[in-house]
C-alpha cells in the first residue's frame, strides 16, 4: 500500500515547477514534504491528489492510477485538506463536516461528525456558522470534514490516505501539536498521511519520511534524521542553518518538542 | 434599460398600429351570423367603438379597450386593457354576448380563447381606404341589426370624404405638399410613417404626398434621411402631453434644420384615432388636414 | 464538552429537519396556490360550482368551461412550471458560480434567452421549410434555450478563473452580455415587420396571459426535465461551494457537473422566457429566503425552491390578473414590486454573512 510518484514534470506558462520529482509514501507512515517558498510543494500535492495532470510521469495510489477522471473512486480512498478554503454560502460547521461525511464510505454513521469535531478540538461548534469562525478554527473544521470522508485508516484491508497541505499553518502551538497528533494517530492506525509542512521542528517530531524540495527538484529524501542536517537545509533554504544549537545571547526560544515535557 | 426602451417603443408602435392596421384581410364574413339583438358588447379597438356609438348603439356596450377614447362617453366604460395585450378572462368577465374586435387584437392565444368561448366574436378587417371604411361600418351595422343606420352613416362618411378628397385634389394642383408623418421624436430620434401606412393614405387623401417612401410601416429614420425628405409640413399625433416636444423644439432638431417645414414652422397635430382610424370621422379628418395643409 | 457537542448536533439537526419539514409546508402552500389560481379571476366564475356541477353530471356552460379549463387551468400549469424553473435556475446558478448574486435575470442569461426568442420570431421565416416544420411550436423555446445557453457558457468562461468566480467580473460580464443581447434585439426589431413586432411586444412584457394547452405542451417537457435534472445536483453543488478542487477531491466529476448545471439553467430559463417573457427576481429572492429560513444545503434547498418559486409566481399572477381587472398587469411588474424590496432587505440583513 503506497503512493508512488515517478518522474513528475510540471510546466506552467513555460516555467518548470517540478522536474523529475519522485516520491514513495507508505501506509502507516507520515510523509512530510518540506522546502522553501515556491519550491513546488503545493504543486506536487496537486499532482499527488489527482487535481493537476503532470506533463510527464505517473502517480499511483494503492496501485491504481490517479487523475481527475477517477474522482469518485479516489474520494473513497483519500481525503484532501487544501491550504485555504473559501465557502460560498452560510453553512454551519456541522453542514460542512457532513459534506465530507456524505462523500466517503462512512455516511451511515451520523455520530461521526461529532467525533471528528472532537478530534480537532471543536466539540460544541457544530451549530456555529462556519464563516463566523476564526481562520484557525475554519482550518480545523476543514480537517474534520476530511477526517469524516476517510474516517477509518484501514478499510477492508486497504489503507486510506490523508493529504494535508500545511495543516497547521494558521494554528497556535497547542493546536499545531494536537492536529499533528491526529495525523500521527491516523498513520499509526495503518493509514497513510502525506503532508506539506512549513515547520521543520514539527516535521522532525511527527514525520517518518521527509522529502525536501527546492526549485522544483528533490534535494533529499529519507528519515528526518537523514534529511534535516545543516548542509542540506542550508543549501535548500539559501541561508546558513545549524541544528540543535541554542541561540547566542539571551533571546528566548521555544521548541514544540519541549511542549508537555515536565508539565 | 434596454428593456424599458424597447418596450416603450414597442408599445408606441403597437398603439398606433392598433389604430391604423396593416394589410386588408377580408375574412370576417361571419358578421351575418351574429345575433342582432346582442345586449352586452365589448369592443376591442378605437374605430370599432366609434362605429358602435355612431350607429346609436353605445348603450349596449359594457366594456372597451384602452385605445377607445372617442366619444368621451366611452371613457366611462370599464377598460379591458391594451388591444394587443388583452386578458382572456378579463374580457370574458364582462359577460359579453358579442365581441367586436379589430383585426390586430391580440395576443393570438387570447383571441383563440375568446373565439372558443360561448360568445360571438366578430373581427373587423383592417385597411385604410374608402371602401374598407364603408365595409367596417356595414359589418357593424349588420351585426347590430342596424343596417339602415349603417347605410346612412356610410353614405354620410363617404360624402364628406369624397368632397374633402375632391377639394383637396383641386387645391393641391400640380405641386402637392410633402408631408412627413412623425410617430414619435423621442430623444431626437424620428420615427416616421412609410409605405402601407394609414398615415400615408390619409396624407394622400388630403392632397399631400408622403415625404418618405421605400420602407413599409413605421421606422426610425436617420437625420440625413429626414433632411433629404425635404418635408414641407410635419404631421404628428396630438397626445396632448408633455411627452411631446413643442413644435419649436422639434423643428430645432438638426435633422429638420434644412427642411422647408422648419423654415415655415409648419407642424400639424391631430388626434391619432380621428386621423388614422379610418372610422366615421375620417372624412372630417381629411378635410381638416387639407385645410391645415393649404389653408381653408 | 460532550453535552455541548450534543447540543450542537441537536441545533443543527433542527435546521435539517426544518428544511425537510418545509417540503411539506411549501407543498401545501403550492397546492393552495394552485387552487387559488384556478379559483380567482376577473370573471368571478366559481371553481367549486364548476367542479361540483361537472362531478354531479349537471350541465356546465361553455363559458364556464372555457374560463376554468381553457384559461385558468393551462395558466396555472404554466405558472407552476415557470415559477419552479426560474427559482431552480437561480439556485443552480448561485451554486455553480458560488455566488448568491448570480441570477439569470441579473447577469444577462434571460437577455440571451430573449435574444434567442426574438431571433426565432423575426428570422424563423427564413429557415428552410423542412427545419421550421420539424421544430414547429418548439422553434421559439429552443431558440431561447440556445440563447441562454450561450450566455451562461460565455459568462462562466469570462467570470471564472481557477475555479473561483469574481463577483465584480461576473456582474460586469453580465452587463456586457445584456448590452450585447439588447443590441442584437435592436437590430432584429429594425428588421421585423409589423406583425412580428406585435408578437415581440406582447412577449417582452412578461405575462402568463397567453397561456394555452398548446403553449404548455411546448414547454412542459423542457421545464420538467431541467427541474428534475437540477434536483439531482444537490450534493454536487454543496461540494462545489467549497471550491472546484475540493469538490473534485470529494469525488464530484466537476467538469461534467458544471456542464450539466449550465445546461439545466439554460434550458429552464430559455423555456420560461420563451413562453412568458422576462420575469425577474423569482430566481434570486426564492433561494435567498429559503437559505435564511432553512440553511444553504442544496439538497432540500432545490426542492424547496421549486415549490416556493411555483407558489410565488402563481400568487404574483393572481395579483396581476385581478388588481386592475378586467385589464391585466404584466406579471414582471408584480414580481419586481414584490421581489426588489425583499432582495434589498435581504442584502441589508445579511451583508456580513454572504461575504459581499
Automatic annotation (TrEMBL), chain A:
Residues 3-240 form the ABC transporter domain. InterPro entries: AAA+_ATPase (IPR003593), ABC_transporter-like_ATP-bd (IPR003439), ABC_transporter-like_CS (IPR017871), P-loop_NTPase (IPR027417). SUPFAM superfamilies: P-loop containing nucleoside triphosphate hydrolases. Keywords: ATP-binding, Nucleotide-binding, Translocase, Transport. Pfam families: ABC_tran. Gene3D superfamilies: P-loop containing nucleotide triphosphate hydrolases. GO terms for molecular function: ATP binding; ATP hydrolysis activity. Part of the ABC transporter complex HmuTUV involved in hemin import. Responsible for energy coupling to the transport system. NCBIfam families: PRK13548.1. This is Putative hemin transport system atp-binding abc transporter protein.
UniProtKB/TrEMBL annotation, chain C:
GO terms for cellular component: plasma membrane. It is a multi-pass membrane protein. It is found in: Cell membrane. It holds the Pfam family FecCD. GO terms for molecular function: transmembrane transporter activity. Gene3D superfamilies: ABC transporter involved in vitamin B12 uptake, BtuC. Keywords: Cell membrane, Membrane, Transmembrane, Transmembrane helix, Transport. The chain crosses the membrane at residues 77-97, 109-132, 138-159, 171-192, 212-233, 260-289, 301-324, 331-348. One of its GO terms (biological process) is siderophore-iron import into cell. It comes from the Bacteria. Belongs to the binding-protein-dependent transport system permease family. FecCD subfamily. This is Permease protein of ABC transporter.
Amino acid at each position: 500500500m503506497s503512493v508512488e510518484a515517478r518522474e513528475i514534470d510540471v510546466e506552467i506558462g513555460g516555467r518548470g515547477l517540478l522536474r523529475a520529482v519522485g516520491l514513495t509514501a507508505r501506509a502507516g507512515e507520515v510523509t512530510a514534504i518540506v522546502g522553501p517558498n515556491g519550491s513546488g510543494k503545493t504543486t506536487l500535492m496537486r499532482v499527488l491528489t489527482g487535481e493537476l495532470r503532470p506533463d510527464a510521469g505517473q502517480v499511483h495510489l494503492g496501485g491504481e492510477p490517479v487523475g481527475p477522471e477517477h474522482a469518485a473512486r479516489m474520494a473513497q480512498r483519500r481525503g484532501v485538506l487544501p491550504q485555504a478554503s473559501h465557502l460560498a454560502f452560510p453553512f454551519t460547521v456541522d453542514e460542512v463536516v457532513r459534506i465530507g461525511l456524505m462523500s466517503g464510505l462512512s455516511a451511515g454513521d451520523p455520530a461521526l461528525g461529532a467525533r471528528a469535531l472532537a478530534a480537532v478540538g471543536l466539540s460544541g461548534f457544530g451549530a456555529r456558522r462556519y464563516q463566523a469562525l476564526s481562520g484557525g478554527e475554519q482550518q480545523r473544521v476543514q480537517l474534520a470534514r476530511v477526517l469524516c470522508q476517510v474516517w477509518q485508516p484501514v478499510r477492508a484491508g486497504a489503507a486510506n490516505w490523508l493529504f494535508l497541505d500545511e495543516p497547521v499553518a494558521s494554528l497556535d502551538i497547542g493546536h499545531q501539536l494536537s492536529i499533528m497528533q491526529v495525523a500521527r494517530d491516523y498513520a499509526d492506525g495503518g493509514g497513510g498521511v502525506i503532508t506539506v509542512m512549513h515547520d521543520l521542528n514539527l516535521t522532525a517530531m511527527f514525520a517518518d519520511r521527509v522529502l525536501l524540495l527546492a526549485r522544483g527538484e528533490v534535494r533529499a529524501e529519507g528519515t528526518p534524521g537523514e534529511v534535516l542536517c545543516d548542509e542540506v537545509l542550508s543549501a535548500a533554504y539559501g541561508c546558513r542553518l545549524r541544528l540543535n544549537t541554542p541561540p547566542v545571547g539571551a533571546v528566548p526560544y521555544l521548541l514544540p518538542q519541549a511542549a508537555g515535557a515536565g508539565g | 434599460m434596454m428593456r424599458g426602451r424597447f418596450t416603450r417603443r414597442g408599445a408606441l408602435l403597437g398603439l398606433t398600429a392598433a389604430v391604423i392596421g396593416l394589410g386588408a384581410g377580408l375574412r370576417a364574413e361571419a358578421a351575418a351570423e351574429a345575433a342582432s339583438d346582442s345586449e352586452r358588447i365589448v369592443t376591442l379597438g378605437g374605430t370599432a367603438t366609434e362605429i358602435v356609438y355612431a350607429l346609436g348603439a353605445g348603450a349596449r356596450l359594457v366594456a372597451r379597450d384602452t385605445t377607445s377614447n372617442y366619444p368621451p362617453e366611452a371613457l366611462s366604460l370599464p377598460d379591458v386593457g391594451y388591444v394587443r395585450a388583452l386578458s382572456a378572462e378579463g374580457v370574458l368577465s364582462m359577460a359579453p354576448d358579442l365581441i367586436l374586435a379589430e383585426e390586430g387584437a391580440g395576443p393570438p392565444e387570447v383571441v383563440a380563447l375568446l373565439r372558443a368561448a360561448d360568445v360571438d366574436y366578430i373581427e373587423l378587417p383592417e385597411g385604410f381606404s374608402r371602401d374598407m371604411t364603408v365595409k367596417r361600418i356595414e359589418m357593424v351595422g349588420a351585426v347590430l341589426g342596424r343596417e339602415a343606420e349603417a347605410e346612412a352613416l356610410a353614405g354620410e362618411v363617404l360624402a364628406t370624404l369624397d368632397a374633402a378628397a375632391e377639394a383637396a385634389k383641386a387645391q393641391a394642383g400640380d405641386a402637392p405638399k410633402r408631408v412627413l408623418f412623425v410617430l414619435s421624436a423621442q430623444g431626437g430620434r424620428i420615427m416616421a410613417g412609410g409605405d402601407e401606412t394609414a398615415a400615408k393614405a390619409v396624407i394622400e387623401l388630403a392632397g399631400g404626398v408622403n415625404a418618405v417612401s421605400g420602407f413599409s410601416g413605421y421606422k426610425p429614420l436617420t437625420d440625413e434621411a429626414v433632411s433629404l425628405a425635404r418635408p414641407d409640413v410635419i404631421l404628428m399625433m396630438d397626445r396632448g402631453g408633455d411627452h411631446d416636444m413643442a413644435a419649436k423644439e422639434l423643428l430645432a432638431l438638426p435633422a429638420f434644420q434644412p427642411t422647408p417645414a422648419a423654415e415655415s414652422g409648419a407642424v400639424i397635430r391631430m388626434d391619432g384615432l380621428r386621423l388614422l382610424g379610418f372610422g366615421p370621422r375620417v372624412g372630417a379628418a381629411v378635410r381638416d388636414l387639407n385645410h391645415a395643409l393649404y389653408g381653408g | 464538552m460532550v453535552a455541548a457537542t450534543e447540543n450542537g448536533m441537536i441545533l443543527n439537526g433542527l435546521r435539517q429537519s426544518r428544511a425537510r419539514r418545509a417540503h411539506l409546508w411549501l407543498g401545501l402552500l403550492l397546492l393552495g396556490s394552485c387552487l387559488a389560481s384556478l379559483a380567482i379571476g376577473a370573471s368571478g366564475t366559481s371553481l367549486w360550482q364548476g367542479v361540483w356541477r361537472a362531478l354531479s353530471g349537471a350541465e356546465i356552460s361553455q363559458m364556464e368551461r372555457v374560463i376554468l379549463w381553457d384559461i385558468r387551468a393551462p395558466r396555472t400549469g404554466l405558472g407552476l412550471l415557470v415559477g419552479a424553473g426560474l427559482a431552480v435556475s437561480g439556485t443552480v446558478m448561485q451554486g455553480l458560480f458560488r455566488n448568491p448574486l448570480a441570477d439569470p435575470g441579473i447577469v444577462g442569461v434571460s437577455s440571451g434567452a430573449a435574444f434567442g426568442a426574438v431571433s426565432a420570431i423575426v428570422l424563423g421565416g427564413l429557415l428552410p421549410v423542412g427545419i421550421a416544420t420539424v421544430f414547429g411550436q418548439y422553434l421559439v423555446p429552443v431558440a431561447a434555450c440556445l440563447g441562454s445557453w450561450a450566455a451562461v457558457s460565455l459568462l462562466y468562461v469570462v467570470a471564472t478563473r481557477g475555479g473561483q468566480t469574481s463577483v465584480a467580473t461576473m456582474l460586469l460580464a453580465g452587463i456586457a452580455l445584456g448590452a450585447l443581447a439588447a443590441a442584437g434585439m435592436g437590430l432584429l426589431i429594425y428588421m421585423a415587420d409589423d406583425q412580428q413586432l406585435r408578437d415581440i411586444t406582447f412577449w417582452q412584457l412578461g405575462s402568463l396571459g397567453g397561456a394555452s394547452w398548446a403553449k404548455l405542451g411546448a414547454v412542459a417537457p423542457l421545464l420538467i426535465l431541467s427541474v428534475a435534472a437540477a434536483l439531482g445536483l444537490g450534493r454536487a453543488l454543496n461540494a462545489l461551494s467549497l471550491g472546484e478542487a475540493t469538490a473534485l477531491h470529494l469525488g464530484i466529476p466537476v467538469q461534467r457537473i458544471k456542464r450539466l448545471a449550465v445546461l439545466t439553467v439554460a434550458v429552464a430559463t430559455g423555456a420560461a422566457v420563451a413562453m412568458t417573457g422576462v420575469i425577474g427576481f423569482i430566481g434570486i429572492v426564492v433561494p435567498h429566503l429559503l437559505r435564511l429560513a432553512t440553511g444553504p444545503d442544496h439538497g432540500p434547498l432545490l426542492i424547496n425552491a421549486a415549490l416556493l418559486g411555483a407558489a410565488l409566481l402563481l400568487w404574483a399572477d393572481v395579483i396581476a390578473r385581478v388588481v386592475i381587472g378586467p385589464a391585466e398587469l404584466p406579471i414582471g411588474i408584480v414580481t419586481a414590486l414584490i421581489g426588489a424590496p425583499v432582495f434589498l432587505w435581504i442584502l441589508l440583513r445579511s451583508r456580513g454573512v454572504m461575504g459581499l
